[in-house]
Fold:
Amino acid sequence: MRLIYEKSIKGRKGFKLPQPDIPGQDEIPVQYCRKCAANLPEVSELDVVRHFTSLSQMNFSVDSNFYPLGSCTMKYNPKFTEKIVNIEGFLELHPLVPQLLGGGRLAQGALEIIYNIEQLLCEITGMEAFTMQPLAGAHGELTGVMLIAAYHKNKGARRKHIIVPDSSHGTNPASAAIAGYDVILIKTGKDGCMDIKEFKQKLSEDTAAVMLTCPNTLGIFNTRIKEITDLAHSVGALVYYDGANLNAIMGKCRPGDIGFDIVHLNLHKTFATPHGGGGPGSGPVGVSKSVVEFLPVSRVMKRPGGAFYLNYNNKESIGYIAPFYGNFAVILKAYVYILVLGREGLIRVSEYAVLNANYILSRLKNYYEPAFSRRCMHECVFSAFAQVKKGVHALDIAKYLIDKGFHPPTIYFPLIVKEAMMIEPTETESKETIDGFIDVMIEAARLADADPDKLTTAPQTMPVKRLDETKAARDLNLRWKPV
Amino acid sequence: MTYIPHTKEETKEMLDAIGVASIEELFKDIDPGLRAKSFNIPKGQSESEVIRHMQELASKNATYLTNFIGAGFYDHYIPAAVDAIAGRSEFYTAYTPYQSESSQGWLQSIYEYQSAICELMQLDYANASLYDGGTALYEAAMMAIRVTGRNKIIMDSGVSLIYRTMLYTYTSNLNIEFVETPVVHGQSSREEIYKHLDEKTAAVIVQNPNFFGAIDDHSDVIKKAHSLGVLAIMSAYPLSLGLLKTPGEMDVDIATGEGQSLGIPLSFGGPYLGFMACKKDFIRKMPGRIVGATTDKDKKRGFVLTLQAREQHIRRERATSNICSNEALCALRASVYVSLLGKEGMVDVAKLNHRKSEFAKDILGRISGVEVKRSSPTFNEFTLVLNKNTDVVVQKMIDKGFAAGFPLGRFYKGMNHYLLVAVTEKRTKEEIEKFAETLEKVLCD
Structure:
C-alpha cells in the first residue's frame, strides 16, 4: 500500500484549527525559527481515516485471529475497559495536579485507584508493597535490579553479579547488565529447569540476586523453586520473580509465599490490558518487607481519615523512575479487569490457561517433539527439529499458519530449544478454536512429509510474501524521504 | 466464567484428552506446602457495577479546572479521528509485529511514524518509540556513552527536573560523571558549559524550549561540543517544531522528547510517548525497535522489524538497551495527528500556541504584582514572578476554577514566587482574560 506521504496533494487539508480570536502578537525572532515546514502529508480527514483503516485491516489481532504467541499472553481484552479510560475525569487529569499545594484533593479518585490496585496486587502475589510506576515489563525489571542494588548498598556491600537461567527472557540479562551487574548464566537441566548443581557452584557472596521466571519460559513449574530461594537467601542474595507467567498460577501459589523478594508483573499479559501493537505496557513491581524502603518515589498513601496522598519522604528510595505514577490508563484497565473477574474469576483464568495449553500439548505431541516430556503450565514448547530433516523449519510452519488464519506461536524462543515453537493459547480461547489450530498444525506436520513446498513458500494469502530481512538490515530504508 | 468460553462438557472432553481427572491435577507440580497462604480478592462484579464505581471515582478528580499547567505535559486538542483510528481493535489488540507478513499494517504505520519524527526533528533516522520523554533521554545518554566510549555528561539545568532526576536514578550504579550547568537569563550558560567541555565528555544535554519555557539556539554550543568529539543531545517539544528551529538545524546528534503533545491525552501521567531520532552514523547504537522497508521475492515493497541484532531478545546482556516493547499505540496516535494537521496545520497550531501565549503574557504583565520574565523569547509557556507565594496563589486560583500553572518552588529552591504558565491553542481569549482578571483579584486579596 502507498504511504500516507505518497498520497499527499499540495494544498489539501485534514483539520480545521480555531480562528485566532486575539490580535496579532510579536513573532518569534527568525534566528529561533525553522527555515521550512516539515514535509508532512497534505491529506483530507477521509484520506487519513481510509488510509489507517486499511492499515488496521492488514494485521492479525486478538479480535480477528487466534493469537497463541507464547510468553505474550494474547488473551481477549474486554471492551468495557476502553470505555473506562475515556471517562473525562481520568482522560483529562493533568499529572501535576496532585503535586500542587492542596492538590491531592483534586485527584482523590485517581490516587484511590492506584492505592487499591496496589493492595490487590499485593494479595495476588503475596508481596508487602507495590509500585505502579514501571512503564512496561522490562522497565519493571530495571526498577527491580535497581532495588536489588539499593538493598545491597544499604547493607554496605557491592555484590557483583546476577544469576539467570539460560531459558530466561532476554530482558532479564539485559536489565541486569544495564544496571551495572555481571550476568552469570546457568544451563537448563534435562527436566527443563535450572540445573541446581551448577547453580550451587555459581552462587556466592558476590551474588546480588537470582532472577527467575516461574513457571519458566518452557511452561514448566520448577518443583525445587523453594530450595532455590532458600539457597539464595542463605548467601544473602535476593530472589527476583519475572512475573511474565503469573497468569498460570493465580490463586494456586504466590511468589511472596515462596520467598521471592521482588516481583514484576506485566499488566498487558495477566490482566488483559491490550498489547497495543507493541505497547504501552505496564510493569508494576512488588517487594517483600526488606525491600519496601527502597521503592521509587512517589508512593500513594492513605491517611487515617481515608484521604489519599503522594509521599515523597523516603530517604532510602532509589528515586524517580518514571515521570509520574505509571501508565495510568493501562493501570485503570487492569484494575477494572480484576474487579470484574474477582477471586473466582482470577483462579479460573489460571486453571483454564493451563487446561488449554495441556490440551494442545497432548494433542500435538505425536506430531511434534515436545521440548520436555512432562506436563506444562500455561504454555507448551515443541521443537520442529524432526521436520528440519525434511527441509522444513519452525519458520515455515509459522508462515503456513498465517495462510490458514492463525497467528503463529513464538518461534526460536526459548533459545535453548532448537527450532522452538512456543504455544500459549490463553484461557479465553474456546475448544473449537483450539481444535481448528491443532488441525492445521497436524496438517503442517503431514505436509512436511508429503509436500514441503506448501510450507516453505507460505504465506501466499497476505499483502506481501516473505520479505528480505537481510536486505532490510543492509540497505537501510527507515523512513520516507521527500523526492 | 467471565471471558472463559468452556462448557462443562468441553472441559471434560479436554481433561479426557489430556488424561487427567481434574484441572487441579494439572497443578500437581506446585507442592502443597507452597500453595497460596491467602487469596483474599473481592467477589467479581458485573460490568455495569464496575462502570458506576469508576464514574464515582472519576468524579473525584478535578478536570473541570481551566488548565494553564504544562511543565512538559500539555492540554492540546485531540482531533476525533485520532481516537477513532487508535480505537480500532485490529490495531490495539495486536502485538509487536514479529510476523511481518501478517503485520504489514502495523509495520507501515510505524515506518510512517518514524518518517514523521525525522521530518519534525530534521534528523536522519528515528526508532519506533520508547516509553516516555524521560526514559528516552536516559537512553540517549547511554547511547552517547556507547558511541564515544566516554563517561562524562554535561546537563543544562533547563532540562526538566523530572527527567534529570530520572537520569540520576538510572545511572546511580554506573560510573558516569554528571555536571549540571546553570540557566542564566533564561538560557543555557555558555560560559559554564564551555568550562566543563573536554575530551572526556560524551555528551551535552539541553532542552528546547527549556523547562522555564525559554527558546534558545544551541548551534554555538553544539559546534563547540563537536570540536571536542562530544555529542549533542536535545530534548525537544515536538509540537513546537512546527515553528522552532529544529534539532537538525542546530546539528544535534540525538533528539529525544515527550510526544504527548501529538494527540495523546494527559491521562494522569501515561501512557505517553518517548521519541528518539539521530544522525545516520549512530543508528546501529540506537535502542528500541526499528522498522525498515524491504521487498518480497516479487519485488513488492514491504516492512519488517530490522537491525534486531542490537536488541535484548537476540543479544541479551550485550544489547543496546533492555527495552522490549515500545509505545506503538501512542506512536500511532502521533502519526495520525501529524497526518491530519499536515504540513501547514503543524505550523498553524504552533503559531496559535505562540500567539495565545504572547497575548496571555501581555495582559498578565499589566497586573500589578506580576512580572513576566522576558529575557528570552518563549513558545507557549513562560515564567511569572508574583509578589506573593505562588503555592498559595495557585491554591486560591483552584477555588476559582483555574489550574493557574506550575509553582516552580515545588521543584526549585528559592523560586517560591515563580509560576510557570502554559497557554495552548485550546485556551480562548475569554478564558485567558478571565484568568488574568481572577489572578489580579487573588493578588490584591
